[in-house]
Structure formats: structure tokens, C-alpha cells
Design brief:
Layout (H helix, E strand, L loop, with lengths): L19 H6 L40 H12 L17 H18 L5 E9 L9 E10 L9 E8 L17 H23 L8 E7 L7 H12 L3 E8 L14 E4 L11 H13 L4 E4 L12 H5 L4 E5 L13 E3 L2 E3 L8 H20 L5 E6 L6 E6 L6 E10 L6 E6 L3 E5 L7 E9 L8 E2 L1 E2 L13
Bound molecules: zinc ion (ZN).
Amino acid sequence: MTNRSSAHHTFLATSIAASVCFWIAISPAFAQQSAPRDPTEPQQGQPHPKLLPHPAAAIARQSVDEKSMRALIEQLVSCGTRLSLSSWTDPKRGIGCGRDHIVARLNEIAKESGGKLQIVVDKFEATSERTAGKPVPLESVYAILPGSDPKLAKTLFIVSGHYDSRPSDVMSTEADAPGADDDASGVSVSVESARLLSKAAASGKGGYRATLLFAAIPGEEQGLLGGYRLLEWAKQQGYTIGGMLDDDIVGDDPSPGAPHRVRLFSGNGEIDDCDSPGRELARAIEEIDGRENVRMIFRADRYGRGGDHYPFYKAGLPAVRFTEPLEDYSHQHQTPRTENGIEYGDFAKYLNASFLGDVARDNAEALRQLAMAPAPPTNARLTGAVTPDAKVFWSAEEDPERAGFEILWRETTEPRWQVYDFAASPGETVLRGVSTDNHFFAVRAVGKNGARSIAVPTEIERRPPPLPAGTKQ
Ligand SMILES: [Zn+2]
């Protein structure tokens, strides 16, 4: 994959026939001024900063080991059920069997990584409606690749899949629940990312400043129990969450015209005029992996569904969900059976190894570049309301590996940021002749290696209009 950031700008104006030639001839940044009838902003023209190229992609698609991913999925399916309430001690049937296969595979990978990858089994208890209100024992598997930068090593980028599964009855430990797509597929992406990235680290091509965590967690079907625990565990260990990539149902792409893009869900957040950190993480991933590979969907999850990114998202942290392009519900959460000629059940035979491999590559490359990046700026603020100039302020700690900061803007209706300007150091930049009202603004840090942090949207001073007497806010 190459740096596509500059190739991605949308020429909204190409539909305006009379202006086509004018718009195509002009630099993509000007596409922000979407229609000739809007005032030009700024009137004197925009700055043209020299931008550092993004890092060259290092995770080649052909380096993905589809065969081993498939083998792990089949081992997990062979456990019969991996319901979180099933046996943790039977090596042949139940969720403990699933844990054993994952730990064994990660140990193989750790051996090849020259001892860099650390495997942790985190045992805990959790309770929910779907544990019948009783605490049940659960075990999460984490593989950790420590970051090289003393300051950034406490920042964690997570990729996670859930290894529990469920039949139609979410409380039945007896029924089979193969769970190949939901979510042995996501587990295989997490584990393969561990292999790809620890291999790159062992061969000196890592350069991860932040720490990477490859998770396989239980309890998702009983109420995101492993997701909540992962967040709690990370906090207890003193980590800051740099980003959380949840891969859940990423193994199939059966509709005509395949391959299609993997969907990447991110929630809006709860602040007016300011997208969530998850949305910014989604934009960063799309920029790294390319629009032709990732389909951003601006909603927290599929309608009526949830996933392990949700606890992180609700905590205001950057978290997103990868899911296959179009789901087949007869293969999800279904006890295997045939009814009226329809075969139900989440079997490995429905999976598409090539699609799954694409998802693994996209996760691994995104994690790699995010872990190479400087810390995102903090305290980003926009001032200058009711003046002709927008003023963008931000803070950042010292970082000798950082080249500077990109000031980003976008039309309020545009899904993606564009770079407006570059600044070498933190502080305030005045965008002369730019209205505070017609665009959104953000700042991100750029490493000397070209890796970008996720963007931090500028916070604005909230000045709600005065309320009529007796009105509740
Ligand atoms: Zn799932």
C-alpha cells in the first residue's frame, strides 16, 4: 500500500458542469471550498505546507499466513462449543479447549519472535444477566509486544477478537456453537497480527514506540464481559489506550463482486460539533489502509448489536469495530441444524480465507503505523469566535522523534480531514481569514518517520444561549 492521503480528496465540484475544468486544475485542498457561490476562505489563499510522506507499508499481503489462520479457526471450532459458561478444564470440549489452542499458537509465535512477545492469561470473574446473575470464572489471553520508547511504552494499541461462541440459546452449554465467523475469525486476525508484527520487530522493521496488545477474550456473548475486563486490566496496569481495534465477524464475503471492503464502525460521541476519538481512529485507519480496503461506517455498531469496542467507546477512548461487508444471519448465533432446507450454523466452510487475510493485513499495518507515531497532541482548542480568524491551540510533551504537527480542517459535511497547515512546535496558530464557523478543525502529531497520531478535534468554549426561566437544561 502506498501513501494515498493526497489522492483521496473528494472533488465535490466535479458535478458542477460549468466549473469542472477550473476545479480539476486546482490543488485538491481547494475542493474544501465546495461551491463557487461560497466565499473563498481564506481570501488570500491557503498555506501550502510541505508534508512528510507516510511510512512505506511494511506488512505485505502475501506475508499473511492464511493457512495458519484457518488452522486456528478449525481448532477452535473443534471444541464443539466455546460458550463462556462451558467447561474451562475439559481439553476436548468447551471454552477451556479454545483457550488452550490460542495459548499454544501464541507460544509458537512468541518463540519465533526472539522472546519479545509476552503471553498473559488474565483470570477473572464477572456477572451478568447472561451468567444467571452469578459470578463465573473467565480467562482472557493477551500477547504483549512492549514499545521501545520509554514514554510511549505505557500507551497501548489493542487488537481484539472474542473466542467465546454461542448457540441459539445463549445459556445452553450443551448445544454445539462452532463460532467460526463469530468470532474465531477475529481471534485469528488478532493472533496473526501478533505474528506479523512480532516478526517485523524481530527483524528490526518494527520501530513500535508504543506497546501492542493482541487479545483473545471471552464473555462477549454473555454481555461484553471480556471487553469490560480488558479495559479495567489495561487501566490497572497503568496503560493509556492509544487505540482499540475490535475484530468481530470478519471472516466472510459471500456476496457477488467480492472482494468487498471490510466495514469499520465508529460512533459519533456525545459532544456537539466534535467527533469521538473512535471516529478519529477510524479515519486514521482508513488513511493508512486506503479507501479501497476500508469502508468507514459512521455508527457505533450495527443496528441492535454490540461488541467489545463498546466499553472503550463509552469511556471516551478511541475504539472501532471491523466487521465483514454483509452478514449472513443464518450463520450467526445459531445452533447447527437444517430447517426448511436452510442450513444454520457458524461453520468454517463458509469462511473466505482471502478476505480474512486482507483483514489481517489491514489490522496489522494500521497497528504498526499507529504504534510508530508520536503521542497525539492534548488540549486542542479553537478560539476566535466572532472574529475574522480561527485560532488553533494545542499542547504536547517534548518528543525528539516528532517532526511537528499538522493542522487539519474539513467542511462540516465532509467525512475526512485535510491538512491545512504544518507547525513545528506546539502552541497557537492563527488561521488568517478562516472562519471558526464553516469548518471543523483538528491537530495531529507527525513523527520524523512520517507516522501520524490520530487527530484530536479542537474543543470549543461552550456558550449555550440563555434559557427561558424555568427551562431545564
Ligand atoms: Zn461476536
